[in-house]
Structure formats: C-alpha cells, structure tokens
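dude i think i finally got it to work??
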Amino acid sequence: MFVKDWMTKNVITVFPDTKIDTAAYIMLSKNIKHLPVVNSEKELLGIVVKSDIRGVMPESTIDKKEDLSDKKPLFVKDIMSDEVVSINENDTLEDALLFIYQGRIGALPVVDDENRVVGIISRYDILKAMVAIMGLEEPGSRVDVVLEDRPGMLELLAKEFKELDINIISVIVSNTGDKKRIVSIRFDGLFKHKVEEHLKSKGFKIYYPWKA
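look at this
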C-alpha cells in the first residue's frame, strides 16, 4: 500500500507571507492542526502547526471564535518549521507510519518528485488504512496460530484454509522472540471453533493469550 492511496489529497496550504491570524482562522474553520507552507509553485518550504500559533498567540482564536483583526500582524514565515519531515507520494504506508512514530509527529506533507505538495497524511489516515487493510470492518472471525520461525510454515497454514474452502481476509505476523511467530488470521464466516479444531487436528498450536 502506498501513501498516495491513503493521503488527504485536497490539502490546504499557506504561503510564507500569510498572516498568523489567517492561518489560525483556517485551522479553526477547517478543524485541522497542520498547514504545509509552499511557494507559488507549490514547492514545500516548511510547515506550521497548531502549537506554533499558540506560542505567539497565547490567547489566540486557534481554539476560540473571536475577532482577530486587532492582533499583531505576524507572518507564517516567522514561526514555521523549515526543517520539515515530508514523504513522497510513492513511498509505502509503512514508511509513513515509521516516520510518524519515530518523529512523534501528527502528520506528514506529501510531495511529488519535484518537491511539490500533493497531499498530507496524518495519524488518522494511517489508522484508517490499517483498519481497511486488516479487514476489521468486514464480518468474519479470527484465529491465532503459533508457528516455528522457518520458511514455508505460513504456506502450510494457508493450505489448511484452502482445504476448508475458507477465504482469508488478512494476515498479521508477530515475532515472539523465541524463534516462533504468532500468526493472526482473519477469515470469512463465523467458523472459529471449526477452524481451530481442524488446525489442532493437523498439528498446529492455537495461541490463547490467557494461557500464555
């Protein structure tokens, strides 16, 4: 899965000479916390976030609806971060997740190969993607199986679902740290008990958290 498939494409941007009160109004009216800063060619120059505005407007309208016309006319260029972390639209969703996690940031401006802003991807966008990828909103069941950490084990497990004529929705593999992996499989239908009993009869170990 790629960033361009899950990013917000109609991204709102501002210019370096946009007034702070205007940026604050945009954030308030559009209910957003991040504004990429661009030039006339839409090339990424930086980013301004809600906390930046709070820093220069301690009692600003970033959270309150009041007239901003008498505030000091500061500009976005005075408070924006010009060392902004961005991501290419063709990078993977995993890349975006890692950048956001490691940088402890809320969103990433998305750029094309010419560094032009084409979107923004936030933590919510990634969560939405994970829900879809994992099939969490699709009706079905889940089984957790302990496998040895060696080639071919996942294929053997998948063959059992084929034998049962049950469609797999998603697969998540986690490392237990003891040369074993827990494979969590979501599948069509409400056949959890049937699937567990079949797998146990084939020598697979079912993982039960309360017995771990």
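Residues 2 and 91 are 6 Å apart (CA to CA).
im so relieved honestly
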